[in-house]
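Working notes for the structural subgroup meeting. M.R. asked for a predicted model of this chain before we commit to crystallization trials. I am recording the input and output together here so anyone reviewing the notebook later can reproduce the run.

Input as submitted:
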Amino acid sequence: MEDSARSEKGYDLVSLFSGGLDSILATRLMSEAGYSILAVKMLLPFYPGRFSKVVKQYFHKAAGCDVVELPVGEDYLELVRSPSFGYGKNANPCLDCRLYIYKKGWEVAESVGARGIITGEVVGQRPFSQRRDALVFLDKRSGIEGRILRPLTAGNLPETELESSGFVKREALLDIQGRGRSRQFELAKEFGIKDFLNPAGGCLLTDAGFARRVFALIESGNLNFLAIDIAKFGRMFKINNIILSVARDKRESDELDSIYNVEKEKNIGHIECLRYPGPSAVFLAPSGVSEKMLKLLSSIVVRFSPKLGGKGEVLLSVGGQDNVIFAAAADNATIEEHRI
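Returned structure, recorded in C-alpha cell form:
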C-alpha cells in the first residue's frame, strides 16, 4: 500500500472486532499488510457472561492494535424485538444485526478518516447470515457498498471499491470458505496467535433455550439490558409480566447478587434464604408487586432450597428495602406452569 494512501487521521481501516479467531485473523492480516487498523469492539448484550475487566483486557490484547469499545443502545434492542428481515432458527435477527454493526462501524470509520471497514466473515460459515448471497445482499442494503472488506474470504466475493481503487491489493486477500477451520488454525499458527475465544461460544440468540427466555422478555415487556444480564443465569420463570431467575449454583448466586447490588434502585427484587444456605434469586417487575405475588416468587425460591425442608424464612429485598417473610415451597405443577 502506498504511504500516501493512508488517512490523514492515522487509521486506514476500522475492524469490526468480535474477539473470535476470524476477526483476530482479519485484523492481523491487514495489519501485517501495512494498514493502520482501529478495532471496534461492539458491546453486544447477547454473549455469554458479562463484560468483566478481564474480558475487556483480552479483547485489547487479541486485536494487536488500537481498540475502542462501543456500547449499543435501545435501537439495538428494538431490532431484536421486531427485525425487518426476520429471525434465524431461534431468536437471532442476524441480517438486521449485521446491518446495525456495519452502520455503527462506518460511523466510527468516518470519524477517524478510515477508507473502509473489515470483518472476519467467511462465505459459508454461517447458514443464515454468511451465505454468499446473504453477504452480497447485506452489502447492497448497508448503504456503504464497496466499503466493507472481508479479508479472509474476499476471493469468493465481488471486488470491492477498496480493491478496484488500488487501496487494497486483491492478491493480498484470502479465499477461505465453508465451515471448516483448518486454514484459520494454520494462519493463527503462522501469526503466533494462541489465545482466542471458542468458536462455539458465540451469540446466545442462536441457542434454543436462551431464545425462549428472550421471547418471554419481549412478551412480558421486560426486554432491556438489565433483564438480558439476568436471563443469562439460573432457572428462569415468568409469572404474568414478572421475570424471576433462581441460581443453580454458587457462581450464579454471586452473579445475581452482583446484578442486584448494582441495580437495586430499579424495578428489581432479590430473594435469599435465611438460616440455611440456598440459591439467590432476582426478579424484574415493571410495576408494583402484590404481597400475594411476592409470596409466590418466594415459594419458587424455597422449592430449590432443599436445606429448608420445604418451608422457611426468606429475605426479600425490593428497591433496597428488606423484608423477612415465611414461605412454603411451590409444588411441581406451579414450577412447571411458570418455568421458561
